[in-house]
Amino acid sequence: QVVESGGGLVQPGGSLRLSCATxxxxxxxxxxxxxxxxAGEAREVVATIGSDGDxxxxxxxxxxxxxxxxxxxxxxxxxxxxxxxxxxTAMYYCSVVGLWGQGTQVTVxx
Length: 110
Known about the structure:
The protein is built from no helices and 11 strands. 0% of the residues lie in helices and 49% in strands. It is an all-beta fold. Strands 2, 4, 5, 6, 9, 10 and 11 form a 7-stranded mixed beta sheet that branches. Strands 1-3-8-7 form a 4-stranded antiparallel beta sheet, with no helix packed on it.
């Protein structure tokens, strides 16, 4: 099971921390991916991290603003988002070993 949380309404320039809680499998063995889907657009990968917390990857539009991390002891992953812009408004999803959560909505609005 994968469950995202932490979304909400934030002003431009604000910050949010998304969490991804998992259970039912060996979380530490798998990479984690965060995706987002803007209204009317295809889902896109935002950031990924290896099973040991290595090799983080970010799409260009979030580099320097978003940080992906994980805590294998807690079977959880996180996406710290700073300096949010209107273009970051989307439903955000966590995916691990082919499992998906229900998503958490991030809305950036003045």
